[in-house]
Design goal:
The protein is α/β, with parallel strands linked by helices and 246 residues long. The chain has a six-stranded parallel beta sheet, with helices on both faces. The chain has a three-stranded antiparallel beta sheet with strand order 7-8-9, with no helix packed on it. 48% of the residues lie in helices and 16% in strands. The mean pLDDT is 89. It contains ten helices and nine strands.
């Protein structure tokens, strides 16, 4: 018997799915909720065998973020994701989540009946994984987009700071504009920006990293510098070529 946690923000659908799974005789819905935050609490009290998770949820956590938090405490917890949403951020979260096995990710519109979802749950429990070809294509598209646009790799506060770095502001000036009393907050944010853009790998000089971050922000593309300081960018074939800024 699969002890299933159902995480779905549509109450009517959640109740219908729960009733449908129970009639299969192979699934017991041990918990259900609309929010990722509550799913964490419920799972830690009574760990399920598997989770059926909508990607868009009530609360602050989406389904991907909730699964990451769950699997920190319950390694490789089988999760079947489903969604009708086509938001780049969901695909970006999934791509960077590090989820490698014990999962399925499918279109909600194609998998709404419990008897269709049950095989996905069973496969996830045995360690198999499945992703809809359409979703896999979108994940790849978002990855390509992120490789081309460095701003897409930053969180909102990091984006603000990167813009001010590109304007030539000091950490003290940025901290003042954003209302931070401690300029070390900006230093930590700078470090996150450098890491996201690969600038922490090729230089330990903060001044050089800061200058290069400003160049990347203005150019709106990822640039890698070699050990001799020569800049390279990725072309349409995903090959690194010398950058000629004209």
């Amino acid at each position: 018997m699969i002890e299933l946690m159902l995480v779905e923000d549509n109450q009517r659908l959640r109740e219908a799915l729960a009733a449908g799974f129970e009639t299969t005789g192979k699934v017991h819905v041990c918990a259900h909720t609309a929010a990722g935050e509550e799913a964490l609490e419920l799972a830690f009290v009574n760990p399920p065998t598997a989770v059926l998770m909508d990607v868009r949820l009530a609360g602050n956590l989406n389904g991907i973020q909730t699964a990451i938090a769950l699997r920190r405490e319950i390694p490789r917890l089988p999760v079947v994701f489903y969604s009708i949403q086509d938001d780049d951020q969901y695909y970006r979260d999934f791509r960077t989540s590090g989820i490698l096995s014990h999962y399925a990710y499918v279109r909600k519109s194609n998998y709404l009946l419990p008897e269709m979802i049950l095989p996905l749950l069973q496969d996830a429990i045995t360690g198999r994984s499945f992703i809809d070809p359409e979703i896999e294509t979108r994940v790849h598209e978002v990855r390509t987009l992120d490789e081309q646009d460095p701003l897409a790799l930053l969180e909102p506060n990091e984006l603000l700071v990167a813009g001010m770095i590109a304007q030539g502001l000091t950490n003290e000036q940025i901290a003042a504009r954003l209302g931070f009393r401690d300029k070390r907050t900006i230093s930590r944010t700078n470090g996150s920006i450098y890491a996201a853009w690969g600038l922490d790998e090729n230089t330990t000089d903060e001044k050089v990293a800061r200058t290069r971050a400003a160049i990347i922000y203005q150019a709106r593309r990822i640039i890698h510098w070699d050990s001799d300081g020569r800049p390279f960018v990725m072309n349409a074939d995903h090959d690194w070529v010398a950058w000629e800024n004209k």
